[in-house]
Write a structure and sequence with these properties.
By secondary structure, the chain is mainly β. It has helices at about 75-80, 95, 200-205, and strands at about 1-5, 10-15, 25-30, 35-40, 50-55, 60-65, 70, 85-90, 100-110, 115-120, 125-130, 135-140, 155, 165-170, 180, 185-190, 190-195, 210-215. It has three helices and 18 strands. Strand 1 (about 1-5) and strand 2 (about 10-15) form a beta hairpin. The longest helix has 4 residues, at about 75-80.
Length: about 220
């Protein structure tokens, strides 16, 4: 693999040529710690963007470009092998290891005070999620298969400079910015964020969610 990495912030970009005949193929990611969040893309095919999240484990993918719940790929996603401090293990899936295809992966490892990757269960009212820092950017996806499909949501404190983070972007659509005042909103403080209301995309009762949050470094 070819790698550009910043081990201080826990972020790397990795490219390689796929080989779907080789289950157990490994690629280096350049980080000193195991990645907690990885976005993959087959650059040569018109295909989905599979996402690995540490809270879902090695067999389940979600797709950055769709509204779907977690997809049980079994061994086919990451060869049922958790990323290590140096390597990502692949199976024979075309979406991240297509033969002769150019691949790209964006990898993040959690860093205290800068990034947080985890999960929570909604209650339809108010849920606080501890990050250890003031979040500036929050990406959320409902993943349980028992609920209806929902958009990914992005909230940030640049478009919303004070109070609730009501402005939301949906990375899986081409839609414009939304303001989900009546459904759900997010408030932040120096160590956490709180999802409010009953909006299904971030706080449905008994629904489960993954998130990626990054600190304000201004």
């Amino acid at each position: 693999s070819r790698v550009k990495a910043n081990t201080t912030t826990g972020f790397s970009i990795v490219s390689w040529v796929g080989d779907s005949t080789s289950a157990g193929k490994t690629i280096g990611h350049g980080l000193a710690d195991a990645p907690d969040f990885i976005i993959f893309k087959n650059r040569d095919d018109a295909s989905d963007w599979p996402v690995y999240h540490t809270s879902l484990g090695t067999d389940y993918a979600v797709y950055l470009n769709t509204t779907g719940a977690q997809d049980d790929r079994g061994v086919g996603f990451l060869n049922s092998t958790a990323p290590s401090s140096s390597l990502i293990t692949l199976h024979t899936w075309n979406l991240n290891n297509g033969t002769g295809d150019d691949m790209i992966a964006y990898c993040w490892a959690e860093k205290a005070g800068y990034s947080s990757f985890g999960s929570y269960t909604g209650n339809g009212s108010s849920v606080s999620v501890t990050t250890g820092f003031l979040p500036a950017f929050i990406l959320i996806k409902r993943y349980n298969t028992s609920a209806a499909a929902t958009n990914w949501e992005i909230h940030d404190n640049t478009r919303n400079t004070a109070g609730e983070l009501l402005g939301v972007l949906y990375p899986n659509t081409s839609g414009t910015e939304g303001f989900n005042n009546s459904g759900s909103s997010i408030t932040t403080n120096s160590t956490s964020f709180t999802v409010n209301g009953s909006g299904g995309s971030i706080n449905g009762n008994n629904d489960t969610y993954i998130y990626a949050a990054f600190a304000d470094t201004r």
